[in-house]
Amino acid sequence: MMFRFLWTASRGYRFRPWESPYLRWRIETYSGIPADSITAQIFFRFVWSERKSLLEYLLWVRRMRRIYLR
């Protein structure tokens, strides 16, 4: 389930997720990093530093899918 979200969220940019307009927007609204300035290095630094929060978010997504897609 978590991988389904990741697969969907990175659609069209699976091998370069830092270029995804959706993921850039999510990172910008969460962290305040301007979307236009996100590079691969910034993207992976953000993912690593926020890994706990991101995992909690993915677990929440899984719970919500289970509740609403029964």
Summarize the structure.
The chain has 70 residues and is mostly helical.
Structure commentary:
The protein contains four helices and no strands. It has helices at residues 2-9, 21-31, 40-49, 51-68. The two termini are 14 Å apart. The model has no long low-confidence stretch (mean pLDDT 91).
Helix fraction by DSSP (H/I, runs of at least 4): 55-70%
Number of helices: 4
Give the overall shape. globular
Biggest beta-sheet profile? none
C-alpha Rg (nearest Å): 13 Å
Number of strands: 0
Count of discrete domains: 1
Return the structural class: mainly alpha
Q: What series of H and E elements makes up the topology?
A: HHHH
Distance N terminus to C terminus?
A: 14 Å
Return the average pLDDT rounded to an integer: 91
Outline the low-pLDDT stretches: none
Our estimate of the beta-strand percent is: under 5%
Key terms:
globular, mainly alpha, 70 residues
List the helices and strands and how they pair.
Blueprint lengths: L1 H8 L11 H11 L8 H10 L1 H18 L2
